[in-house]
Amino acid sequence: FREQRLFCYQWLMYVDAGVAAITGDPVGFAREQWETWSPPGWYAEGDFERAAASFRNPDWVAITLHAYRSRFLASEPIDPAYTDLRRQVAATEHLVVPTLMLHGGDDRCDPPATSEGLDGHFDSYRRVVIDGVGHFPHREDPDSVVAAVLPHLDEHE
């Protein structure tokens, strides 16, 4: 039930009434995520308003809906030019690319437990949980993100 509550926003994108609601109020939809996926007070209203300009762009709605709907709806059109690539990705069980996973310790959409124990799927996998941070670590604590990313890049030129 917890995951159902966490991912109800995705279900909303799969039903016609949800698509109509998101299309009619994309800023309200985005605000719901900003307000519930991270600890309260992580952003200033002015920051949200600046970001909301992109949420008002009709392309944002179309791209966001397609990104989710194409995962599970067979009727969602997909670009056939990427069929071979999609097959390769689907068949991949082990990644050789050095991977750094940054996870907010207070992520209220994808809890930190969802990224535990994945080491076996990678040749090189490092997981960093940033305490007190929610779903948007790069916005909520950019200094910690940079402190984790730069050494990773130095190590894996």
Helix content: 40-55%
Instruction: Report strand order across the widest sheet.
Output: 1-2
Main beta sheet, described? 2 strands, parallel
Mean pLDDT score: 95
Low-confidence segments: none
- Kindly estimate the percentage of residues that lie in beta strands according to DSSP: 5-15%
Question: Roughly how many Å is the radius of gyration?
Answer: 18 Å
Order of helices and strands: HHHHHHHEEHH
- How many DSSP E strands? 2
Tally of separate helices: 9
Instruction: Tell me the span between the first and last alpha carbons.
Output: 43 Å
Morphology call: globular
SSE-based structural type: mainly alpha
